[in-house]
Structure formats: structure tokens, C-alpha cells
Write a structure and sequence with these properties.
- About 15% of the residues are buried.
- This protein has about 100 residues and is of the alpha+beta class.
- It is built from 2 helices and 3 strands; from the N terminus they run H-H-E-E-E.
Length: about 100
């Protein structure tokens, strides 16, 4: 019973707000990230699902990776992904392909 109580918060997070689809225009599986677009325009904006959709649409990336402040990430490159680094207030520091 005690283990069940410890798992309850994880179950709530897994079920939270996943019913609303995020509209991402012109991004299809296998799309390649385009670094030439103005991803710098997203600097300073707070992280959100809507912002993720905007960044993915602007970069044409099929995948998005949020990188919280101070997080350690792998360095493998994926041309289908845009990586968004966040500051301590969860605002965008940078958005780059890979």
C-alpha cells in the first residue's frame, strides 16, 4: 500500500492534460530542422506547449528537446530535432538545430 501511495503522483503527471493536440503546421515525420530561420526571435519567451509548437513550425523540426537550466544532455546530433535551452525562470536562452 505504501508503494502505491508513492507512485500516485507519477500516475497523475502521466495522465495530466495530454488530450489537447498541439497544432504544428507543415511539420511531418522525417522533417529536417532548418537552422537558417530566425530562431533567435524566441529568446526570452516563457516555455510552454504553444511556444514549442511555434518553434517547431518555424524550424520545421519533427522533434523538440527542452533543456532545463543546468541540465546535462547528450551531444548526439539529430537533424530532425530542435534543442531549446532554458534559463532558471524557464525562459528560452537559445534554440538550435540538433
Amino acid at each position: 500500500m505504501r508503494k502505491l501511495l508513492l507512485c500516485a503522483p507519477l500516475l497523475l503527471v502521466a495522465c495530466a492534460n495530454h488530450d489537447k493536440p498541439v497544432p504544428i503546421a507543415s511539420v511531418y515525420p522525417g522533417s529536417k530542422c532548418t537552422p537558417s530561420v530566425g530562431l533567435d526571435s524566441f529568446k526570452g519567451q516563457p516555455a510552454s506547449v504553444d511556444l514549442a509548437a511555434q518553434i517547431m513550425t518555424a524550424s520545421r523540426a519533427h522533434k523538440l528537446r527542452w533543456v532545463p537550466f543546468g541540465a546535462v544532455i547528450t551531444m548526439e546530433y539529430s537533424d530532425e530535432r530542435v534543442t531549446v535551452r532554458l534559463d532558471q525562470q524557464n525562459r528560452v536562452l537559445s534554440a538550435t538545430c540538433g
